[in-house]
Design a protein that fits this description.
alpha/beta; TIM Barrel; 2 domains; seven-stranded parallel β-sheet; five-stranded parallel β-sheet; methyltransferase; transferase
């Protein structure tokens, strides 16, 4: 019998139960015991759902309160000194939350740890902060408690832990900020090995047989020192009696295939969806008795798997490996919604094309039956439905739009070039009349319960179009008046009509579809509901012009038009897989081009096209970067190149490393870029300084993901630090991201201090 296992399951719950409980706890509406009870209930439910789907080895440790890397940092005692963690006590839940967001119901507020994207996904993790001579210890029992829970429920478990070397690779610290960073990080291996051995010993004592150790950095181009470290580390770890499944994902092993295959581990998981390693080569490097876990069902998208093709691909491996061939999703199912059965409004045709987390496990169960030659009537019926759905999707008329295809073909002749920046800048400064250190926000303002209820009632038909429009305009007027009171220089309309920066636009475009409960965790309690791009994308009507023009009519100050960029609209959707992604991206660019030109005609002279996912789309292997960056930059320039010189184009990027793609960012040729720098203490500006970035920059001066109110002197110091790297005439002052998740008292207090900081800077 072919073993089915899972690398990880969505933790938030089909109705976002975890999100709601976390936010209740942070607001003081429930206590820690009540929060723990919600987590216990979700874990129990999810384990049973996986077992019912045929999963033999259940992942334990994939549940976390914020993210799995932060969870591991607290478990091994890697808590920065500013969080005042007692070296002899267990790391508490509130210490974990203070590390993530700077504040918790107990403990002193302080600066949160840095947050960034998990490889090329829209999931975020809290970056480990380490230092030379760092010590480690088992400081939290959560993993072991969860193993006991699962064993008590009668499940066969497979604990999931971050790999030692991937954890080190992802870590940061002041001691690692120079050319010796690799050497200094690798010097921590002995101390880390000691705590890893203790963790494995404790798991073994609990009766665990297999442990999954995630080493996704094996899909990267690694320096030789790191490759050598893998041999050292795993030679030491396999001395434990536990059986180790080494898990890689998100890309091919490529030049690391031989390295991974020769490590003395009991099993190797490879991503056969995103990876293109030769299966025969993988099989040939396996050691006698070693398990190959085939990640054959995508953990990153929501389309049904072609099980016929998968069976043909895997049958030779099955014949060679027998019971040592395991089946699994390509990566953790954290990146997809929980259950398609919760979707009641999707039409039958579209729904038949989809597969969420629970359905992906059912697909694996059917594939295992095919490989084992134990097809029952139920399995045969499942396979027939799967085959028919795939055929229907290929021939459906709703997929292709000849007008869009024609427009795309003609776009080749559209110039992507604007007048040189220095010439544009003079016209923009003359037209806008802004002071030094102009102040603005990233776009969104607090989304209150009343606003969300307003949108809900309108969508459900309980509120007429006329009343809805009047209510939204009333909210816009409040936001504009608020910004004038605070003293901001460039205003926004606040986006009260938008549920999400991607979903909002998708709802107004052809080629998109939407779910009711297709929630995916982005970070902590932040969940998004990615739209589905199933066909050619076209603009049906103007999407933002009416609201932005109305906001501009209320003030003499410049009003920014707010749009989501083509790459982010692509990356933060579940994208059709029947054509190249770059083709879909250019369709989105043409849609935005129409919207941008209409905004300009309506008198909007500053337009921001957000691209926070720009780096997220970067392939993990550098040899593939150039091709991606070429079409990503081209899509952005295609969307904006039609505007007049005096129209100022902004873009926004957050929680990404820019050093290695700074040339591509410059090639986008936005007039102003706003970036996140508050958590990293202006570290990200170094790339812009070293490259001599020519255009204007707004380094975020405070962290909107923390409820802490920023100090005016702190923001002044940050901007002084920025002005040492960038000409002060090219600097803007702004938060590091949108204010949607904050409340109004926090927002007022923070922005008033930010404006005060800008005024002080102008006098220096």
């Amino acid at each position: 019998m072919t073993i089915i296992h899972n690398l990880g399951f969505p933790r938030i719950g089909v109705q976002r139960e975890l999100k709601k409980a976390l936010e209740q706890y942070w607001r003081g509406q429930i206590n820690a015991q009540e929060l723990e009870a919600v987590g216990f209930g979700l874990r129990k439910k999810h384990w049973q759902q996986q077992a019912d789907a045929g999963v033999s080895l259940l992942p334990v440790g994939d549940f976390s309160w914020y993210d799995q890397i932060l969870e591991w940092s607290t478990l091994i005692g890697a808590v920065p000194a500013r969080f005042a963690q007692d070296a002899q006590q267990e790391t508490g839940l509130d210490t974990l939350f203070r590390m993530a967001r700077g504040r918790a119901p107990t403990g002193e507020p302080t600066a949160a740890c840095e947050m960034t994207k998990w490889f090329d996904t829209n999931y975020h993790y809290i970056v480990p902060e380490l230092e030379a001579g760092q010590t480690f210890r088992i400081a939290r029992s959560s993993l072991f408690d969860q193993v006991d829970e699962a064993l008590a429920a009668g499940h066969q478990v497979k604990p999931v832990i971050p790999g030692l070397l991937s954890y080190l690779w992802l870590s940061k610290g002041e001691d690692f900020n120079n050319g010796a960073s690799d050497e200094r990080k690798l010097a921590l291996i002995p101390a880390l090995l000691e705590v890893y051995e203790k963790v494995l010993t404790r798991l073994q004592e609990q009766g665990v047989e297999w442990v999954q150790i995630d080493e996704p950095i094996l899909t990267l181009e690694l320096p030789q020192a790191w490759k050598d470290a893998f041999k050292l580390v795993y030679a030491k770890l396999v001395q434990q009696k536990l059986r180790i499944l080494l898990a890689t994902y998100f890309e091919s092993l490529d030049d690391n295939l031989a390295l991974a295959g020769h490590l003395p581990v009991d099993g190797l998981h490879v991503d056969l969806v995103r990876g293109n390693d030769d299966l025969q080569a993988i099989a040939d490097i396996l050691q006698p008795g070693q398990v190959l876990s085939a990640g054959i069902v995508s953990g990153r998208d929501i389309w049904r798997t072609d099980l016929d093709a998968a069976a043909v691909r895997l049958q030779p491996l099955k014949e060679k490996l027998g019971e040592n061939l395991w089946l699994a999703p390509s990566c953790s199912l954290l990146h997809v919604p929980v259950d398609l059965a919760s979707e009641k409004k999707l039409d039958d045709e579209l729904k038949s094309w989809l597969s969420f987390a629970r359905q992906k496990l059912e697909e694996l169960n059917a594939l295992a039956a095919v490989l084992d030659k134990r097809q029952t009537p139920a399995i045969e019926a499942f396979l027939a439905r799967q085959h028919q759905a795939l055929e229907n999707r290929k021939t459906s008329r709703r997929i292709h739009n000849p007008a869009v295809q024609q427009q795309l073909a003609q776009s080749v002749s559209i110039s992507r070039d604007r007048t040189p920046f220095n010439e544009r800048m003079k016209k923009q400064r003359a037209a806008l009349g802004l002071p030094l250190f102009p102040t603005t926000t990233i776009g969104s303002f607090p989304q209150t319960a009343d606003i969300r209820a307003l949108r809900r009632d309108w969508k459900q038909g309980g509120l007429s179009d006329v009343k809805y429009e009047a209510a939204i305009k009333e909210e816009i007027a409040k936001v504009v008046a608020f910004q004038e009171e605070v003293g901001l220089d460039v205003l926004v309309h606040g986006e009260p009509e938008r549920n999400d920066m991607v979903e909002y636009f998708g709802e107004l475009l052809a080629g998109y579809a939407f779910t009711e409960n297709g929630w995916v965790q982005s970070y902590g309690s932040r969940c998004v509901k990615p739209p589905l791009i199933y066909g050619d994308v076209a603009r049906v009507m103007p999407m933002t012009v009416e609201w932005t023009a109305y906001a501009q009519s209320l003030t003499n100050k410049p009003m920014k038009g707010m749009l989501t960029g083509p790459v982010t609209l692509l990356q933060w959707s579940f994208v059709r897989d029947d054509q190249p992604r770059e083709q879909t991206c250019r369709q989105l660019a043409l849609v935005l081009r129409e919207e941008i030109l209409d905004l300009e005609k309506a008198g909007i002279h500053i337009i921001q096209i957000d691209e926070p996912a720009f780096r997220e789309g970067l392939p993990l292997r550098k040899c593939k970067w150039q091709a991606y960056l070429a079409w990503a930059v081209d899509a952005f320039r295609l969307s904006v190149s039609g505007v007049r010189d005096a129209t100022q184009i902004h873009t926004h990027m957050c929680y990404s490393e820019f050093n290695d793609i700074i040339e591509a960012i410059a090639a986008m040729d936005a007039d102003v870029i706003t970036i996140e720098t508050s958590r990293s203490n202006m570290e990200l500006l170094l790339a812009f300084e070293q490259f001599h970035y020519p255009n204007e920059i707004g380094p975020g001066v405070y962290d909107i993901h923390s409820p802490n109110i920023p100090d005016t002197d702190w923001m002044i110091q940050l901007m002084q630090k920025a002005s040492e790297k960038i000409d002060r005439a090219r600097l803007w002052v702004n938060p590091d991201c949108g204010l949607k998740t904050r409340d109004w008292p926090e927002t007022r207090a923070a922005l008033e201090k930010m404006v005060e900081a800008a005024k002080v800077l102008r006098l220096q």
